[in-house]
């Protein structure tokens, strides 16, 4: 049989002592494939292998067994007959005796035991036999790591898959496992061992059963690993994390309550360890174990635990008072990891053994002393750090115990609340008595913490307990009776705090207290409605009157926002009504009021923050905003009122930065955006005459941004409506060319207008309409087809020649989004991209770019002014073309090449000196082409974007520009070509540049030398230098750098004394420092030159440069 | 060389907050490592900011340092480190004067003479062992 000889060959190659692991794996796979395809049966294979399995040569026998075992592992999913499995498992069970072939035997047993039910499994009795043989014959700890791991895996597999069978082995099983784990040190094996213990314990759930007698031994084996701590943190290839291992050990610890007598004392003892890790770990373990062991067993440890925890919380040296947050938060400590864990544990214990622990807390001497001595902690500034720490600790404990349960809340309240209230100077009788002195800080702090705890308790039990039950509780009654006075105290803290900035802590806790009192959830409310409303009134008065105190204002606003979102979240109608009446209405009307004492910036911040608390709130506020926006805008249009101008600007900014994005974030409210956009157009429609001075620079951009944002978020249908509306407005302009365009009866005569074109000849209203129309167009979605594309294109082509940038951007945007082919529509109505391109290539923009201004018809072409105007005209045309090109480039259209060629020809055209500005704008057009723009053609404004479009431009432009540079004859042309090249290179992603590094480096260096001659190019020089430094620091391309080291260094030396820009000098020196790491043989010849030039820069006027120079000098001086 | 450390147990001081820079010339000798200990000279108060005089107009720098113990044989090495550091950090127009603070060293005059003798400094820098040692001390100051 051909297959059997084939097979024998593979077997021989496996057992061959010289074969590598890879070869072995290959032969196993080959044989497994044969068996899987039934070309050879497993029985006949075993017969073939007989010699290898039974020989007395232990090496061959081990290899043979290994091969068979590996094969079985490969065949895990192939159905096998019961007899086959029987005989195989019998064989491997027997082989467990043979320690020389043990590796194979273990793998074999394991792969057989792991088989799934539907492909034939090992029977229970056989598994038992495996376990017996294993426990009898295998000395786990004498094996090497890989075998030990297999042993543990085998044990785990037996325990998990055959629990009912191995359970009979109890007398040998548990001691056997103990013995095999004893002394294990490898993390991977330990992981398995811990899991084994966990499974094992679950096999014997009976607390009086066989496990009880072995619990001591078993735990002893585990306990020596606590806390898990890797002594060799960067072990060879252990990918096991300390955290995982520690977690597994924790599960093993907590697996049975039988471990409790041993584990809890151990963990408590480790709490006093000096190793922070041990502390944190013990706290974690204690939290976890106390859950598993149950309250009854833990009860006897509560006392010890409390004292240990108290020590940690009270005296943890890592608790550092952070000064920075102190300014904001009053008193806050940066909690260390230990303290956090301790607090978690404390909470667990309070839940579990509430009464026991509360007895301890209430009678605790330290807490008692702190509370009794609280009258000493009157002034925040007088409290020393230690007392602050203690106060903080007590605050934490009170918070947690109040939060835990109703019972504990009652006890804590009864224990401490009266004393605190007394310290605050409140008594039930004279709740109306006026407060004179500032209230006690310590008591305020503790009160607030206690209240915070109650609130958390009520929020937590919301829905479970009926509120009537809660209202009967003792703490609730106490809170009710003191509610009014507490509110008063907290409100008073706000006033008391105002006299100096050092009182920030009072402010903080006053506001926090009010906030807590106002946010008890649902219909449960210990305080009357009037109290709630008085709190709101207090806060709102702070927010509207006390805006000079920035911190208080911020805190109060934050509290109001919290209360508002809380009311909104819990759907509390009664409270929502009060909130609406007191806060929202007041604030919504704020903008309309003529009260100018409050700065409008603050007003807007207030309004928009309150608005974010809920939808209904925002809608109400939106009305206020809207009416004030229309009022201020129309005021601006009609009177040009400078005060209203500022308000309108900040209103628009508020819309585009806060209100509209908020609606966007909650989703589904695009009608707001739609309405806003229409509103602005309506405003313009209603005001035929504009009185804004043309010097005003801020309002229009703000309006355009808001318009862009609003339109960009609208859906296609609404966008169409807005465009139509805006388009209809265009016909009302007074500007002649536009009027001609709109009036379709007269032929379009774009070519003939005068040459002294300037933006000033727009009337103000026209400028607004055209600019806003441009921003609508920029934000359109590609699906929103505009009906009058042709006219709109003409319009923008005309207006952009006046130097109107938004028009140019709108052009690019239209070109970017026009459909290529028109489907399912009447072709005569819809304009396609091809037609648009034809139109552009016939337009004046294109002609101007291609032929130069001299050949254009220029009115009054007799003097210098005419010439200058025509130059200006052409550079506007070039800008427009650049944006059109950007639109084309981003959608991946072929015509972008034509644009590039035209732009390059503008650079090259044979002009004299006067036309420098044209060449320069042509060179800078490449910057427009390749850089990202915020104003248009980005993802937010729905641009069509092909991936890697920048790389495409780079690969189109690079060869053309390189050949042009070599041909250029005048120095100006060359400089401008280099400028264009630099613009492209700086915009291209570094990875694309690196792949071309070999070609690019010489040109980069050349461009540096050409461009650094003129101060005009300093920014671009800096950008090139940054690209160069990116190439220099890339390790993979260093051979290219090495090749060009000399020219690079020579250029850098020249730039080191570049007089016009400090960062250029600095970066050049940094590049030189980086160059010093190149192979010495290559750079040594340059060393003297570099040192000489660097020693001059040591005297540089700028410190940063000198510092870099010192580093660089050291680097170059020290390698010789 | 002496076996064992000369000052086995130095006092480490806290670094002083640097005063804001005003002059055009700044000295960079923060963080020169002590030849014996892993501390910087400033940590050990061998050098303090007050002990450095700079006169930018006359291009003159004078550094006065205080060895940790009176018989410190490392004083010359420290001085050499200071000189090399200044040589590498300052423009060549400067004249650098380095001195041991009066009354803090047993052989004050000799050390001063040695440190400010151009020939002897140059000769010292020809000695590969010394240069290695100096470079070692200066290494962290350039990071």
UniProtKB/TrEMBL annotation, chain A:
> What is one process in the GO biological process aspect for this record?
iron-sulfur cluster assembly
| Domain annotation MMS19 N-terminal: ranges | 46-314
GO cellular component terms? cytosolic [4Fe-4S] assembly targeting complex; nucleus
MMS19 C-terminal domain location is: 694-1075
| Cellular compartment(s) | Nucleus
Q: Which domain of life is it from?
A: Eukaryota
Q: Would I find Cell wall biogenesis/degradation among this entry's keywords?
A: no
| Main subcellular location | nucleus
Keyword entries, A-Z = DNA damage, DNA repair, Nucleus, Repeat
Biological function: Key component of the cytosolic iron-sulfur protein assembly (CIA) complex, a multiprotein complex that mediates the incorporation of iron-sulfur cluster into apoproteins specifically involved in DNA metabolism and genomic integrity. In the CIA complex, MMS19 acts as an adapter between early-acting CIA components and a subset of cellular target iron-sulfur proteins.
Q: Which family is this sequence assigned to?
A: Belongs to the MET18/MMS19 family.
Cross-referenced PANTHER family: DNA REPAIR/TRANSCRIPTION PROTEIN MET18/MMS19 (PTHR12891), MMS19 NUCLEOTIDE EXCISION REPAIR PROTEIN HOMOLOG (PTHR12891:SF0)
Please report the name of this protein according to its UniProt entry: MMS19 nucleotide excision repair protein
TrEMBL record, chain B:
Tell whether RNA-binding is among the UniProt keywords.
no
Q: Which residues form the signal peptide?
A: none
Matches recorded under Gene3D superfamilies: 6.10.250.1280, Fe-S cluster assembly (FSCA) (3.30.300.130)
Instruction: Enumerate the Pfam families for this protein.
Output: FeS_assembly_P
> Which GO terms are recorded in the biological process aspect for this UniProt protein?
chromosome segregation; protein maturation
Q: For this UniProt record, give its keywords in alphabetical order, as a comma-separated list.
A: Chromosome partition
Chain segments carrying region Disordered: 15-36
Q: Which SUPFAM superfamilies match?
A: Fe-S cluster assembly (FSCA) domain-like
The keyword DNA-binding belongs to this UniProt entry's keyword annotation: no
Q: Where is the MIP18 family-like domain?
A: 31-94
PANTHER family (alphabetical): CYTOSOLIC IRON-SULFUR ASSEMBLY COMPONENT 2B, CYTOSOLIC IRON-SULFUR ASSEMBLY COMPONENT 2B-RELATED
Q: Which family does the similarity line name?
A: Belongs to the MIP18 family.
Q: What is this protein called?
A: Mitotic spindle-associated MMXD complex subunit MIP18
Q: Give the species.
A: Heracleum sosnowskyi
């Amino acid at each position: 049989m051909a297959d059997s000889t084939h097979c024998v060959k593979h077997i021989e190659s496996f057992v061959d002592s010289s074969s590598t692991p890879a070869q072995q794996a290959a032969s196993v796979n080959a044989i497994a494939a044969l068996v899987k395809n039934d070309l050879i049966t497993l029985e006949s294979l075993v017969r073939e292998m007989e010699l290898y399995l039974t020989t007395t040569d232990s090496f061959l026998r081990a290899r043979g067994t290994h091969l068979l075992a590996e094969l079985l592992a490969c065949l895990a999913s192939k159905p096998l007959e019961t007899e086959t499995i029987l005989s195989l498992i019998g064989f491997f069970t027997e082989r467990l005796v043979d320690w020389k072939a043990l590796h194979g035997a273990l793998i074999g047993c394991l792969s057989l035991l792991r088989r799934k039910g539907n492909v034939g499994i090992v029977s229970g009795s056989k598994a038992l036999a495996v376990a017996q043989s294993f426990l009898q014959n295998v000395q786990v700890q004498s094996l090497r790591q890989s075998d030990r791991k297999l042993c543990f895996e085998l044990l785990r597999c037996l325990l998990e898959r055959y629990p009912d069978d191995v359970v009979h082995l109890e007398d040998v099983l548990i001691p056997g496992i103990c013995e095999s784990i004893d002394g294990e040190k490898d993390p991977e094996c330990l992981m398995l061992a811990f899991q084994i213990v966990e499974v094992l314990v679950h096999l014997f759930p009976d607390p009086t059963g066989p496990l009880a007698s072995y619990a001591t031994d078993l735990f002893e084996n585990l306990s020596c690993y606590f806390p898990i701590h890797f002594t060799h943190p960067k072990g060879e290839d252990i990918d096991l994390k300390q955290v995982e291992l520690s977690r597994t050990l924790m599960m093993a610890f907590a697996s049975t309550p039988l471990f409790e007598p041993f584990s809890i004392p151990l963990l408590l003892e480790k709490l006093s360890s000096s190793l922070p890790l041990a502390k944190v770990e013990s706290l974690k373990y204690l939290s976890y174990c106390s859950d598993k062991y149950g309250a009854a067993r833990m009860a006897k440890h509560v006392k010890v635990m409390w004292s240990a925890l108290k020590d940690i919380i009270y005296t943890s040296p890592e608790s550092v008072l952070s000064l920075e947050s102190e300014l904001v938060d009053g008193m806050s400590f940066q909690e260390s990891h230990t303290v956090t864990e301790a607090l978690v544990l404390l909470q667990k214990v309070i839940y579990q053994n509430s009464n026991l622990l509360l007895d301890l807390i209430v009678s605790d001497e330290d807490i008692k002393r702190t509370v009794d001595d609280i009258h000493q902690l009157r002034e925040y500034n007088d409290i020393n750090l230690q007392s602050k720490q203690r106060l903080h600790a007590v605050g934490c404990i009170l918070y947690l115990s109040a939060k835990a349960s109703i019972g504990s809340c009652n006890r804590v309240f009864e224990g401490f609340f009266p004393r605190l209230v007394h310290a605050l100077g409140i008594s039930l009788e004279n709740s109306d008595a006026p407060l004179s002195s500032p209230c006690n800080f310590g008591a305020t702090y503790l009160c607030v913490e206690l209240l915070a705890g109650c609130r958390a308790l009520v929020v937590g039990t919301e829905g479970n307990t009926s509120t009537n039950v809660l209202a009967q509780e003792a703490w609730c009654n106490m809170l009710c009776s003191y509610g009014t006075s507490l509110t008063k105290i907290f409100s008073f803290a706000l006033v008391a705090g105002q006299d100096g900035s050092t009182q920030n802590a009072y402010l903080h806790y006053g506001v926090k207290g009010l906030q807590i009192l106002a946010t008890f959830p649902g219909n449960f409310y210990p305080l009357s409605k009037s109290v709630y409303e008085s709190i709101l009134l207090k806060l709102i008065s702070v927010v509207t009157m006390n805006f000079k105190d920035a911190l208080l204002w911020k805190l109060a606003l934050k509290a109001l926002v919290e209360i508002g979102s809380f009311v909104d979240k819990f759907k509390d109608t009664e409270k929502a009504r009060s909130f609406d009446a007191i806060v929202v209405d007041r604030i919504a009307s704020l903008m309309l009021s003529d009260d100018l004492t409050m700065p409008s910036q603050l007003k807007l911040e207030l309004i928009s923050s309150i608005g974010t608390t809920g939808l209904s709130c925002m809608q109400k506020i939106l009305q206020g905003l809207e009416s004030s926006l229309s009022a201020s805008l129309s005021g601006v249009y009609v009177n040009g009122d400078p005060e209203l101008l500022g308000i309108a600007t900040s209103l628009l900014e508020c819309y585009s930065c806060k209100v509209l994005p908020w609606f966007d974030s909650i989703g589904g409210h695009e009608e707001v955006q739609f309405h806003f956009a229409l509103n602005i157009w309506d405003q313009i429609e209603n005001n035929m005459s504009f009185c804004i001075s043309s010097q005003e620079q801020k309002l229009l951009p703000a309006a355009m941004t808001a318009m862009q944002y609003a339109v960009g978020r609208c859906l296609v249908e609404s966008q169409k409506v807005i465009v139509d509306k805006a388009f209809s407005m265009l016909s009302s302009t007074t500007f002649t060319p536009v009027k001609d365009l709109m009036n379709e009866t007269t032929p379009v005569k774009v070519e003939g207008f005068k040459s002294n074109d300037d933006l000033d000849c727009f009337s103000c209203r026209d400028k607004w309409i055209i600019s806003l129309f441009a921003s609508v167009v920029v934000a359109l979605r590609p699906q929103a087809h505009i009906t009058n594309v042709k006219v709109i294109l003409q319009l923008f082509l005309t207006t952009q020649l006046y130097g109107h940038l938004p028009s140019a951007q709108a052009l690019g945007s239209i070109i970017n989004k026009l459909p290529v082919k028109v489907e399912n529509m009447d072709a005569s109505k819809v304009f396609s991209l091809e037609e648009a391109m034809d139109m552009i290539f016939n337009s004046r923009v294109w002609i101007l770019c291609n032929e130069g201004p001299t050949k254009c018809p220029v009115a009054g072409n007799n003097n210098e002014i005419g010439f200058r105007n025509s130059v200006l005209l052409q550079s506007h045309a070039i800008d427009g073309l650049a944006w059109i090109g950007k639109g084309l480039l981003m959608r991946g259209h072929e015509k972008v090449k034509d644009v590039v060629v035209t732009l390059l020809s503008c650079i090259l055209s044979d002009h004299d000196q006067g036309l420098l500005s044209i060449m320069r704008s042509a060179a800078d057009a490449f910057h427009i082409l390749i850089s990202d723009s915020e104003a248009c053609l980005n993802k937010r404004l729905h641009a069509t974007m092909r991936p890697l479009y920048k790389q495409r431009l780079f690969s189109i432009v690079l060869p053309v520009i390189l050949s042009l540079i070599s041909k250029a004859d005048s120095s100006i042309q060359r400089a401008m070509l280099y400028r264009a090249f630099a613009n492209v290179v700086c915009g291209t992603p570094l990875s694309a540049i690196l792949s071309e590094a070999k070609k690019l480096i010489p040109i980069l260096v050349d461009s540096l030398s050409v461009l650094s001659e003129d101060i005009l190019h300093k920014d671009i020089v800096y950008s090139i230098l940054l690209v160069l430094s990116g190439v220099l620091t890339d390790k993979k391309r260093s051979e290219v750098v090495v090749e060009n080291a000399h020219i690079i260094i020579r250029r850098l030396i020249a730039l080191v004394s570049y007089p016009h820009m400090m960062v250029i000098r600095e970066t050049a020196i940094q590049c030189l420092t980086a160059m010093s790491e190149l192979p010495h043989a290559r750079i040594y010849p340059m060393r003297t030159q570099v040192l000489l030039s660097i020693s001059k820069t040591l005297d540089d006027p700028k410190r940063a440069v000198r510092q870099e120079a010192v580093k660089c000098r050291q680097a170059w001086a020290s390698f010789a | 060389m002496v076996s064992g450390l000369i000052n086995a147990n130095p006092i480490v001081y806290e670094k002083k907050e640097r005063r804001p820079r005003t002059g055009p010339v700044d000295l960079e000798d923060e963080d020169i490592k002590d030849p014996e200990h892993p501390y910087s000279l400033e940590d050990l108060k061998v050098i303090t900011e007050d002990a450095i005089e700079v006169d930018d107009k006359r291009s003159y720098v004078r550094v006065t340092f205080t060895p940790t113990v009176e018989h410190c044989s490392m004083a010359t090495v420290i001085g050499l480190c200071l000189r090399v550091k200044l040589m590498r950090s300052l423009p060549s127009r400067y004249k650098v004067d380095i001195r041991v603070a009066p009354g803090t060293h047993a052989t004050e005059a000799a050390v001063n003479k040695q440190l400010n003798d151009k020939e002897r400094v140059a000769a010292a820098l020809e000695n590969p062992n010394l240069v290695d040692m100096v470079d070692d001390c200066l290494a962290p100051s350039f990071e």
